[in-house]
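Sequence of UDP-N-acetylmuramate--L-alanine ligase (Candidatus Brocadia fulgida).
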Amino acid sequence: MNASERGKMASVSTSLLESQINCRPSRGHCVYFIGIGGIGMSAVARILIHEGCIVAGSDLRTSSLTSTLEEMGAKINTKQDGSFMSSETDMVVVSASISEDNLDLKTARKMGIKVVKYSQILGSLMKEKRGIAISGTHGKTTTSAMISTILKTAGLDPTFVIGGEVPDIGGNAHLGKGNLFVAEACEYDRSFLNLTPQVGVITNIEEDHLDYYGNIETIVHAFGDFASSISKEGLLVVNDNDNNIAAAVQKANCKVETYSLSNASDWYGEVLSGGSGLKRFRVLHNGKLFDEISLKIPGSHNVLNALAATAVCTFIGVDKDSIKNALSLFHGANRRFQIIGARNGITVIDDYAHHPTEIRVTLRAARELYPEKRIWCVFQPHQYSRTRHLLKEFSRSFQNANRVILADIYATRDNDYEKTAMNAMKLYEETRNTGMDIQYIPQLSDIVNVLYSGVRPGDIVMTMGAGDVWKVAYDLVSRF
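Predicted 3D structure, token representation.
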């Protein structure tokens, strides 16, 4: 590379750095969100509204999130055809799922409006405070919600952006007056590398988002880069029983603390009771008793999430009584083992699980909570590519259910090849071959009809998926 080429490369690097630095809107700026109904996008939009920005945006689907934003003054449309893009717009924010052929995005670029990624603007917000970033294939939302709940209960008034609505603390976002910023850090598109946290968490690392990463080695490498992004004076809290994490943390330059349900870890959780599905456990820190904690939410995976939250908040300086009390009152995030209703002796639960591991641990928690009851699992696969890459794993994830109903695949970010290469019938056949009692019912409205006529008192109905399968849970409760 000659001097001229090196100069051009340096110029590009400098411009990219300046782009990250200059993506912070100020009071009075007009900010347009493409995909504003996304859980992370809506959270940042809420924060900017509170800061005095003028917020508008588009999303193909309306939801409670978009309704809340409209109540706060945001102008939202569902066309995404470029017609709503104002010449007064100062900045456009896009989620990772927005492609370059999106008409809103094309219009913004044609008009010369500055375009930034959601993760960039999230990173710019975090730089102004003491950042706490929670990453991992699973458990990010619950762990982020636990940490935010503890900090808020302790009177530290954190700012937070969470990938799920948490009713106990006012939703999925809050602009706090304190110096702490809690953010759920998504690994897709290496988005979490735009953050500059002082404290980080890695809950686990598994194969996911293979449409972007391709293989587990690339995923581990990205998490390694995330580990190296934690400031040297900070802390990285990691699951001790994950070989992929063990490889990733080799890049960390900060103090690392481990947690697990085995006593070799820095933070060790010893489950004392859980016959009812709800967990009481003893926490040991470096071999010494920290305290006993009880959780209202079921599952050993949530004990692990609570250990991570305890480690982070102890490092921040929260006393153990505040941690214990906050966790004992924690009711969880929406769409995380959320009981939608109980009618005629039938309990209907909704969960966001859309990865084989998430399905497996959630159904295991349900079986612990309801050992003698018949469990129906209504699963809507999320993405053709994820279903194709993890087909075998999905087929073996339903073992704690008595009956499974499979809906059509919810498409997002899928190209034509993926839609041709995979379909829900293939997952149905693979699952049926494992011996599961499974039905394939493509349409959600038909699923509600089948459930209404098939369930009986004492049954448990669980809807699972990252798409719109939650509608089945609400419609079924309404029918009852």
